[in-house]
Please model this.
Amino acid sequence: MEALKKSLIVIISGYFSVVLLAVTDPRVRVEMAGIGIEADHLSMKDSLAHVLGNVRLTGENFYARCEDLEYDICTKDIHANALDIAMERGYASAEEAFFSSERITLKNADIGLNAGGGGMVPHLKTEHMEYDRRKRKGMARSARIKIGEIPLIIPSVTVGDWVRFVGLRFDGGHSKKLGGYIQSEMTYNIYEDLHWGLLWDVYTKRGVLIGPVVKVDSEGELICSHLDLRTGYICDRGERGADIDGVAIEKKRWYIDGKQHHHLWERVDILSDFLWASDGQIGKDFYSNDDADIRDSFGELDYRGENDLWTLFSRVKMNRYQHFPQQIPSIRWERFPQEIFDSGIYYFGYIDFTRQKFTQEGPEHPGQWEAVEQNRIDIYWGINRPTELGCGINFTPLLGGRWTHYCGDCDRFLGELGFDWGADFYAFYPSTFPW
Model:
């Protein structure tokens, strides 16, 4: 083989990722942070690589080809023209595409998505598509949507403005209690950020479990709201037994499961997680996990100040068969680290008040539960002094104390003395490599 001029650049960062650039002629082969690139020509300017001519890309779970692309080896952003890409969950063709760690943007694209079961593949043509990789959802403008060849389920129509993808979930199997079963969920965007759908499960030994599904995903400048609500009802014809309290489980069984998070005006967060259920065994029989008991329900309100955080938290017992400690409510104020004058020393801490209410077995009457209520005050205060010992090396001595007061019972004092240490390591090695 004719001797050609080659070069090699190895970059080792603090996270020990390795970047290899091998430039050859007439065909360039590049390995960048786990992405293989082949092309007719490559040029580098600072951290930006520009690749031209019959470009091929390979990754851990995708393969792509395009006419030209730009790749930033620092941010790992990719901008490509005339792209065809095959991925684990589908395929896409686009006149122009942008990929980053947070989002994907496609223009004049043809997209197919694997719905994960049932052999039904949503097909989408769109002028412009945005996909949030962290939230796993996308929006398309001027789109045509089709699922398989069955237009009666989701007809192929031209959609104006913005629409969300259809959400599909299928699962199936066999168990001793349920027999053969199929679990499915389908949601569809009916208005802007509102999704509505249906939960539909079939069990050969138990019957049909059915219920509506509602989802809201609203992203605004001042208010962001996320709601995920699922319900299920079944007239159970199988062997049901008793719940954890020994009470016979009725034939009619149901649950309502909800999660929500609202972010208001950049400072307020409202969170809740709640579940109503007819009995304590529905989680083991039909719900999405194998726990014998249902998880607890809670609500939380957070307010973030300039240098502190206020939190109001309450756990609520919504089902009679649940046995876990109750905190009704807990009020907490937390002070973020603040410098004392210009000394380089920082103070921080928190104050927490909780009214505890819980049940326990009576010592004189085993098997009988009695309610216990108690107030608790918990205070922590500490100081530290962050110190930089060298390039990327930090040493922070810490001194603190904690006092916990249980009203009517006891006090507890704890002292803290120690340090935090951290270091970052990196190096750059320019070199030549005989390919």
Remarks:
- Residues 1-25, 115-121, 150-163 have pLDDT under 50 and may be disordered.
- The CA atoms of residues 36 and 56 lie 8 Å apart.
- The first helix runs from residue 282 to 285.
- DSSP finds one helix and 29 strands in the chain.
